[in-house]
Design brief:
By secondary structure, the chain is an alpha/beta fold. About 25% of the residues lie in helices and about 25% in strands. The chain has 7 helices and 17 strands. Helix 1 runs parallel beside helix 2.
Length: about 300
């Protein structure tokens, strides 16, 4: 057995700084569950979903979490915050180790367009190793709806996908189903942590590499401490999920490369026929003449 203890924090969040409240939840978590080795929050937990609270990184907010990590000797996944970077804004998750060092920053690859308009997409995966434990990766909310992201991480050897979300919409049931399916398809642990209030509608969940639900939350504040066994990932991938499908090996041994990923050769006329990526309008309203597909661009916020 290779154990590792992670605590997800589902908490009420507001517009503006939530840093002090997050510090209090970490202090409480470590008082109640001193065996926890990593604490993770939900997407945009640090400052909420308004772009005007975007922060530079490195910066004071991140430094606060570095101090907390050193104090408690734990890993911290801060959920995410909007980051001002080179004139643009990104949805960025910081990974901090028990020495208070920034191990990496993951920038969300698929902003939730069109609702997250003005947020730039990241273009790099983030994985990190914990010595004698295993490999971890980050996906931020909407990222997981695109199976290519979890496939990439697990093909790189990731055992645990840490998935901060800020789902406050009526599709939370679909969000949960995708996390469940991803754990089974990729034979990995999924920690899907949602917020409350301005941070989401809760129902955080945790799944193991066999597709079993280890936790299914409600819509109240919750500390979710769970000790996982990394050996279960390795055994599931080698012997098959519940002793059955060995999907990682089948994908490795696939006889075909999928044409859809070849932008130069694939006929994308059907995808183009779907129209612009734009906010839906009333069915009885005439279509606007000035709606175009959202460009990949920088956004500037004063």
């Amino acid at each position: 057995m290779t154990p590792f203890a992670i605590a997800g924090i589902q908490m009420q969040l507001g517009h503006g700084s939530n840093i002090d409240a997050m510090r209090q939840r970490i202090d409480l978590t470590m008082h109640l569950f001193p065996w926890v080795q990593m604490v993770m929050f939900s997407e945009l937990a640090c400052y909420g979903p308004l772009l005007q609270y975007a922060q530079p990184l490195p910066g004071a907010a991140e430094d606060t979490f570095r101090d907390i990590a050193r104090h408690h000797r734990i890993w911290i996944i801060n959920g995410s915050m909007y980051e001002r970077r080179e004139g643009g804004i990104y949805n960025t998750t910081s990974v901090i180790n028990p020495e208070g060092e920034i191990v990496g920053r993951y920038r969300k690859m698929f902003p939730f367009l069109p609702l997250e308009q003005g947020v730039q997409p990241g273009n790099e995966f983030l994985t990190f190793d914990i010595e004698e434990v295993g490999k971890f990766g980050i996906l931020n909310c909407y990222d997981i709806w695109f199976p290519e992201t979890s496939r990439q991480l697990t093909a790189m050897g990731v055992d645990v996908i840490l998935h901060p979300v800020m789902t406050h919409t009526i599709d939370r049931d679909v969000d949960i189903a995708i996390s469940h399916a991803t754990a089974a398809m990729m034979q990995c642990y999924i920690f899907d942590v949602n917020g409350l209030g301005a941070g989401g509608n809760g129902r955080s969940c945790v799944y193991d590499p066999s597709g079993h639900a280890l936790f299914m939350g409600d819509s109240t504040e919750q500390i979710i401490p769970i000790e996982i066994d990394m050996e279960l990932v390795r055994r599931s991938r080698e012997r098959g999920i519940r002793g059955l499908g060995q999907m990682a090996k089948s994908f490795r041994d696939r006889p075909v490369d999928f044409p859809v990923y070849d932008r130069a050769q694939f006929d994308s006329s059907y995808l183009e026929s779907l129209g612009a990526l734009a906010t839906p309008r009333r069915v009885d309203a005439p279509p606007p003449k000035n709606v175009h597909t959202l460009p990949v661009r920088r956004s500037f916020v004063n």
